Amino acid sequence: MKKTILSLILLTAGILSMKADNITVGGLNRSYNVYAPKNLGENRPLLIFCHGYNQDANWMQNSEFKNDNVSMESVCDTAKFVVVFPNGIDRAWDTGGDRDINFIKAIIEKMVTQHKIDRNRVYLGGFSMGGMLTYNAINKMSDQIAAFVSCSGPSVITPKAGLRPIPLLHIQGTADNFGGVQPALNPWIRHNGCSTTDKVVNNYNGFSGAKMHTWGPGNDGVEVKLLELKDKGHWICKEPQVYTGKEIWNFCKKYSLNKTSPNVSITAPKTGTKYINYAPIGEAVFPDITITATADDPNGTIEKVEFYDGTTLFATCTAKPYKATLPGDKVGKHTLKVVATDNDGETSTSSVEVTLQAPTSLIISSAFTEGGALPAGWTTYDSSERRTGYSSGYSSGCRVLQFTGSPRGLNYGLYFRNINGKAHQGWAKYGLSDGGTTLSLAPGHYTLKYKICNWNKPEFTPIELSIEKRTGSVSVASQTYTPIVNIGNVASNSFGTIQQQTFEFDIVEQGNYVIALYAADVEWSDCILGQLVLAANSYVATNIEAPMSTVNSQLSTDKYYTLQGVEVEHPTHGVYIYNGKQVYIK
């Protein structure tokens, strides 16, 4: 009984320390709770934290009886900042429009007047639906918010064009639809120019099962973080080791809109770029990688820009243009980092990740793991819109679809279409320059394995596969296949096994190539590509033909010829070298 009375006293004290207030926005009377610690002072930060669906501002207050409140007051008292808990209309938020964006803007103005808060250190976060509102605010008021936090708040929002690098923390339990978190963060990771490989701290702060994932620093030194909480559900964690209120503040306090450190950004190559070179063992030659960057300082000058491959410094620039070249000779992932230093000795970092691969076999479709996205390396065109990977947030048109029916022949597939029905006006291509992947093939014999079906064409429209030169789009080999499975235009439909098909072809000239798939010359023809595997069978071409008369006219006086480094006698038929190219005499 005494424990209950003491808890009620503490609860009441917490409520009384929180001031309720009102403000008129867009003709509506809106309410919120505000907590300002004693001896706040001027030019202190502001955190606005939004409740979840069917909750209110009081729910987010300091109560030891709830697991889904943020309990910020003790953190405010120590760090000296103001926290505001707004009330949504009908206990909900407008997560796509401007109604509640305008409410947040009005709160900021009122806090500037009442508490003289620092406009450059305003932070926004929310739980559940409040987290969804937070993502909406990134695109609509990033000029007023220095950093953003979502707790268990899913998002389908993707960065708008021209948006500044965004500091972002997401906190979520693994028992709370955790599988959708990473795909939601991917667009922000790439937008910020962060490495797509995360740095992971296991047992974060000594809390068993907790993991802190960090991507970055990216452009202007910003990071994207994901705090993964093992077995936690849809609530806010308040464990002694991982106290959500403290985690929010520790992340946000690093960021300000009027930062004095340099701005730096790698402009090329873009993160996720791949150079794939099929060649005999030890003979893969990669192009040099040119790294370009921009850098400026808001309150001074840039003294130097340093270029790193991982931890190895390989170039320093002291004046524009900030540009360096890395020899492309080491297979594997390279984290290219640029560090800008200003005249005050402050630094900022930008990094991108590129990969050099020398495979004999590559599962290209392994990147089909995110619905609504176009994976890196791919470019699509449907006779109306051209899309390039990596990009995401698509709810229609060419994109990866996730299938949920049971049984189903695919979990994911790349959908593309031909709207107007004209020849080669609907396609998906892997290896174009704007897709961020270079595919280099040495002379030899290759196999392309694939699984294809139609999406909404019960009459089964054929698909053309073509191997094309990257420059000029000249086809060097092609095959046409007509699917025998149609999914039926609904991702939750059941559909059967899709048989793997095989396309064998020869490359006679070293160069950069593109794998192209074309929908049929029929209006609204379509395709689902579920599997694509490219393998080099042999670096000896097996099916290349040249007229005998042409060969004899050039080589009739010679008795021996070089074939794959071995001297052989002129055959009446077979493969040999002609003008530096492998040809087949028939």
Report on the architecture of this protein.
There is one protein chain. With 586 residues, the protein is mainly β. It has four domains: 2-252, 3-Layer(aba) Sandwich (Rossmann fold); 263-357, Sandwich (Immunoglobulin-like); 361-538, Jelly Rolls; 545-585, no CATH class. The protein has seven helices and 36 strands. The strands form six sheets. Strands 12, 14, 15, 17, 18, 20, 21, 24, 25, 27, 28 and 30 form a twelve-stranded mixed beta sheet that branches. Strands 1-2-4-3-5-6-7-10-9-8 form a ten-stranded mixed beta sheet, with helices on both faces. The protein starts with a helix and ends with a strand. Mean pLDDT is 87; it is low at 1-16 and 545-586.
